[in-house]
Amino acid sequence: MTSWWIALQFLTRLPVTLAGMPTPEQVGRSLLFYPLVGLLIGLLLFAVQCLLGDSAVLLQAALLLALWVGISGGLHLDGLADSADAWVGGFGDKQRTLDIMKDPRSGPIAVVVLVLLLLLKFAALVALLENGSGLLVVLVPWLARCLLPLLFMTTPYVRAGGLGQALAEHLPRRQLPWVLAINAWAMLLFGWSALLALLVAGGVFIWLRSLMRKRLDGTTGDTAGALLEIAECAMLVALAC
User: Quick one: pLDDT at residue 162?
Assistant: First the structure.
């Protein structure tokens, strides 16, 4: 169960304390539990939406989005911001792009991208809630967190050291495809909406992965976070439409 707690501690700001320093193997195995963490986030969002009852839709959407950002500590938004700055400021150069992603400061491109993404998420949440489709919120973080293990399984990790390298080097390659397949089948309980979300998420994954390979020859933790945020936004917009 240590790998489960590692995944929960890394992907959320829930109060989780590990008994000791995890081994690289345990860190790698934590990828098996990323989809489950995503499902938990989705269920928490839906539970809060149910508790809000007949509150104004705009207020519900704002509170849900704030909770969504808060429960992850803005981890993936930070990756998106760093990636946006690096992609524009890197001028197509791999090393310059990697160097900019390490800079903790955010430039105007990062700010614009974050504002636009959060605005799109908010508008899509409003549309879903107005249509009585709040349950679909469960699907989005669940599917998005299936993309991270898939990315690390299929894409070289290009920045030495840190958690990302342990994930890439010690991920359980035999079990992971089965876990992802089981989660995909379970999502089909949502019907045609799940198929739409899977198609959109798959398209975003293929597109962004190709950009990563072209610019960096692989992925980093920041680009993985960017993938998750863009995929969530694209799925929300598609489901709302």
Answer: 61
